[in-house]
Automatic annotation (TrEMBL):
Keywords: Hydrolase, Lipid degradation, Lipid metabolism, Oxidoreductase. Residues 15-328 form the NADP-dependent oxidoreductase domain. GO terms for cellular component: cytosol. The keyword Protease does not apply. GO terms for molecular function: oxidoreductase activity; triacylglycerol lipase activity. This is triacylglycerol lipase. Its EC number is 3.1.1.3. It is an enzyme of class 3 (hydrolase). It catalyses: a triacylglycerol + H2O = a diacylglycerol + a fatty acid + H(+). One of its GO terms (biological process) is lipid catabolic process.
Amino acid sequence: MEYVNLGDSGLKVSRIIMGCMTFGSKKWAPWLLEEEEALPLFEYAYKAGINTWDTADAYSNGKSEELICKALKKYNIPRSRVVIMTKLYFPVNEDGDEPLIQGKNDGPLVNRMGLSRKHIMDAVAASVKRLGTYIDVLQIHRLDRETPKEEIMHALNDVIESGDVRYIGASSMAAWEFQQLQNIAEKHGWFKFISMQNLYNLLYREEEREMIPYCQATGVGLVPWFAVAAGILTRPWDDKSTDRAKTDQFLKLILTEDTAETDSEIVNRVEELSKKKRVPMAQIALAWSVSHKGVNPILGLSKPERIDEAVAALKVKLTEEEIKYLEEPYKPKTETPTAPIYMYHGRVDELLPYNVALNAGHKWANLGANVLFQEDTDDISGHILTELINVPNVMFFAQDRFAGKSFSKGFTKRNVINGLANPLRSLAGLGELMGSIEDFIWKRGWPG
């Protein structure tokens, strides 16, 4: 096993990082391995040299973290010889194994998610308790756009100074947002992020536009997740035999109808090179990943032979021509609209649930779009009535855009209370509104 510095930090990690979302409760996801099957894999990975393990508090509602604690104790693994990375942001179900529906920081989930100082402190304390030890790298699982960035960075600095955390990392956001966080930390003399956990593989290379060049230029280590696309890159294109390939909803984001032809060609070329070099397809996909500067992929390793394959992949070297051959068919697949996006949603909607719309807005923003999301707080029931009342806002938004007025960057959320405004203007704009709805839902599609 090779060990490399994580970015410009002094922390060394194994070139392959074991993803521990694989371990937990089948009630959380049907393809997970429970304790009896999972624990031996920690020992096997450790003996194979994979000393860096990535988890999150939300994975199986904390059970993944608890299994790390049990593995360290059962196999007498010295704490100083492993690097434990965990994440916070999403809510943890404290009353069962089932995953919580991702909602907003309100009602039953108030202060149980996000990156407020309170939640960061509470989540770190809970993770340390479950792990039975300190955290080497604490990562923010997503960016909380409702909490001031200075509050986020101050709290993260404080958990390092408390001794519960050694380093901090980030995950899944726009490059300009990540740069803002780093600049705030530098301005105040606080600890900065040493790593970025982003989505990156042969089938999804959108991060090459901004995030990866920024991280490489500023000494931030890259620990991409979905390195083999939930197994899609490890078997022939038509073989979707794994439980995860059948059930993982996130695959819909990177496997779209528009890019199916080019995606299949990429997988075919991985298969072609694997036959040429007489190695498993997974090793070709991993060899491509580690060929990039500062990249240390995270892998879900569900069997001893998968661990052996991952370690052996480091011996597979691709030529520049082979790398270009694998990359050549790629077609950008982001569903991010290029124009500013105006979204308006009522709390009650029988056609498009509020949480689905809110998550879509956040995902578009994560992919680089600029989104204004207005939530109607009136006691309005039904999709059609809410949309009719919103017609004036749609028209004002369009008028501002045609006038060249500035638009806020990233994701901006506002709460509004709308009366019927001008009914005549509402009726006049109904045709334009319906066209907008058709465009977003049927032509663009909501991100999964």
